[in-house]
């Protein structure tokens, strides 16, 4: 393969923006190609690196180590994925080796676990096989088909109200691509959506040609899917964010469901966005990117509305199905967590053999424990946040770093035994529902109940078989699920997300509430939604009652335009951290001085200021936010300038996030 080469340039997963040259052993020289994974010695460590090129003779006079081992007989990275990796590296300003590390499957050592079982088809509602498309669906489908026939890139936003048939458009478009000998990639935001979506796809295309990636697969299982896709043995691959990197042969269409979801943004380094990566792949392959949502991200919505042929709206449900009626319940002055309106509606609907969903986007039993006498609150020693009380084991848990301890029975500050559990989580709501609605079967779905082997599938299948009357949970119950027997949805503490100090707080809250509302009334019976809030006068609730996303978007985008927030200008978030609060503060100040001194006038600089989570996992954190239009060269200069300033302070670290989705 490369017998005329003597040395390889290797990208290593280290925070250095450069390649490293290694020798090619004679016994491996014919097997190593561009994109191969290899093991090399780097200092005292052994690392897995990625071959990105070859050289005849390295520059400089120094000793060259040889590659020690070839990890994969066939390169896992083709030229297309290497181009994608280079683009991510440039756009998000992260070393290529770190990007490649997150792109490829995990270690393939060891025996694979027993193959993960597929979802139980009988637990999910049967639907009409390939139903006739209504006029709005047909319009989108014909546009997609035209692009597929021409092998022409398209970026299409399908904005459809909940239950309007977006998934059927996906299925029909993918079926058309398969007829043309092309293949499909389907991205979903979280694992909770996998069971039902997988059933719909395997019913349509057969289980042998559809593969599902998710976090509960072993490295070996993920590796097998990767190899099968690269060999052209799979027609459709479904998965979350990381599935965007699967090497599909003849990839013709990429579908992104719930495209607004922030889970598509990688929250650890490198901070890439999977939707942008999907767009890059589609653009360079001449493929179709079909993004769907009932509540699209305002940035995508704004851009698509301005581009001819990119925006399509599905404004009705099939068979003239009605959207559910939304009732706002004012909880001010009420001590109970659950209103009479919600309890009566749940009891009435369940007694008629119908089902309900209750959303509370907080897990645990109580938000925190507080001393009634002196006001002391038990906080995480590693993070600047209160510990959440969990009734199981009477424990206190930090949902950021995982710290856990037994709940105190008396105040360590004043010795009082008068301890109160403040706020509420899904555990508390489960207990209250069970105590009030006697005999009603409740299935709770949150991170505490989905960590087992069956995870989300077991809970959703039980609910699909009507072995539970009420599905209670966090945001994972709010979107993507199709249960025609659900006629009542209750939303508890609907305004809690509005209180975050983030410019996207209203957008995220409206999206969550609208998505949750859409779970009701998807069958023959009319649905109802009861929204409990302590801020009923907030404008988003009037838009929610009317199911009016367009008016909400118009108001929110006007405000962002006035403030020069995205999509008008972009953000870069710079975070300085240290185990010393003083060093973190000093490093952030030096970084500000360096940026304002050398790059004055290139952007607006906000901060430095303590991060929303001032202390996280034992490190004190300061933020600087840059607002402007950032060309690749400017982004790189910003990171280099900031890095040099922070490096002057020992034990201080810098992290950067291009186009962040939050400022925690």
Question: How does this structure look, described?
Answer:
This protein is α/β, with parallel strands linked by helices. α6 (219-230) links the parallel β8 and β9 (236-239). α1 (79-91) crosses α2 (96-103), α3 packs parallel to α4 and α15 crosses α16. It is globular and about 80 Å long. It starts with 6 loop residues before the first strand and ends in a 6-residue tail after the last strand.
First-to-last CA distance: 48 Å
Average predicted local confidence, pLDDT: 90
Order of the strands making up the biggest sheet: 8-9-7-10-11-6-12
> Can you tell me the overall shape?
globular
Uncertain segments: 108-116
Largest sheet: 7 strands, parallel
What is the gyration radius calculated from CA atoms? 26 Å
Give the proportion of residues in helices.
25-40%
Number of helices: 16
Strand content: 15-25%
What is the secondary structure topology, with strand pairs?
Blueprint: E1 7-11, E2 20-23, E3 37-42, E4 45-55, E5 69-70, H1 79-91, H2 96-103, H3 135-150, E6 154-160, H4 166-179, E7 183-187, H5 194-205, E8 210-212, H6 219-230, E9 236-239, E10 251-257, H7 274-285, E11 288-293, H8 298-305, E12 311-314, E13 325-330, H9 340-351, E14 355-359, E15 368-371, E16 388-390, E17 395-397, E18 404-406, E19 419-422, H10 426-436, E20 442-445, H11 455-464, E21 470-473, E22 486-491, H12 505-517, E23 528-533, H13 539-545, H14 549-563, E24 570-578, H15 581-598, E25 604-616, E26 619-628, H16 632-646, E27 653-658
Parallel strand pairs: 6-11, 6-12, 7-9, 7-10, 8-9, 10-11, 13-23, 14-21, 14-22, 20-21, 22-23
Antiparallel strand pairs: 1-2, 1-4, 3-4, 3-5, 15-19, 16-17, 17-18, 24-26, 24-27, 25-26
